[in-house]
Amino acid sequence: MDVLELKRRYDNLSDDEIMRLWASQEGLTEIALSVLKDEITKRGLGGQEFEARTAELAQELPKNQQRFDRHQKHVVWKATTYFAIIGLGALVAVVKLFFK
């Protein structure tokens, strides 16, 4: 992704989304961080309120990750159960045809 595309993406984010991105910088390249800093400056988001909010968001990240992980496990469990039931139904249908 080039710098112009990053600028467009960050420009389309809300202030809250920008703060969340700043709070979770993990995985951002140096270029992405630089463009993000420019966007923060452009919006005038710096200062104590910004730092307090991003610190709060950074503390929420592990909790949100745990919630996401639990949700993913639940979705996988539901899908597995659903397909197991469908498979069992298909197996029963084949057995009934075979023993007719």
What share of residues are in beta strands? under 5%
Q: Please tally the helical runs, counting DSSP H or I stretches of 4 or more residues.
A: 4
Mean pLDDT: 90
Shape: elongated
What composes the largest sheet?
A: none
How many individual domains?
A: 1
The N- and C-terminal alpha carbons lie at a distance of: 61 Å
Radius of gyration: 23 Å
Which residue ranges are poorly predicted, with pLDDT under 50 across at least 5 consecutive positions? none
Succession of helices and strands:
HHHH
Structural class: mainly alpha
Helical content (DSSP H or I, runs of 4+): over 70%
Please tally the β strands and state the result: 0
Give descriptors for this structure.
mainly alpha
In short:
The protein is mainly α and 100 residues long. It has four helices and no strands.
Could you characterize the architecture of this molecule?
This protein has one domain. With 100 residues, it is mainly alpha-helical. It starts with a helix and ends with a helix. The protein has helices at residues 3-11, 15-23, 30-43, 48-98.
How do the helices and strands line up, and which of them pair or pack?
Blueprint: H1 3-11, H2 15-23, H3 30-43, H4 48-98
Helix pairs in contact: 1-3, 2-3, 2-4
